[in-house]
Predict the 3D structure of the following.
Amino acid sequence: MFRFRLEKVLRHRDRIVDREARKLQGILSAAVQLDRENERLGRECDAAAQREVEHGFELARMKRLSDFTGGRRLQIRRNAERARRIRAEAEQQRLILLAAQRDKKVLEQLRERQLADWQEQERREDRKRMDEVASLRYGTEP
């Protein structure tokens, strides 16, 4: 029976890969959420501007619209900067995930090589036993 002595290490590496992948997914979802927020804020600004255009050009209303859109645009810029930093963090996390996947792959390849070696050894031992049985059978018969 084949037994890979580093099976526990391989399972641990597999858990590490899963954990790092979940971290990356969380980071990317935060960036997507910020992008969606920016899209929503942009639509709010556009809708407010459209409503104000329909009501005419009153100075007080235009000032409120300018203040409103200015605040929203500032929030959009801040969110865009946060999304950029989050994406940089995601790239670092992606590198960590790739390293964890490489470590796991090395152990999987080692296990495959050891299994192939074990199977070859088993075949040799089976052939040797069959040869012994055959030599005993034919050696004792008249």
About this structure: The helical segments are 7-54, 59-140. Residues 7-104 form one domain.
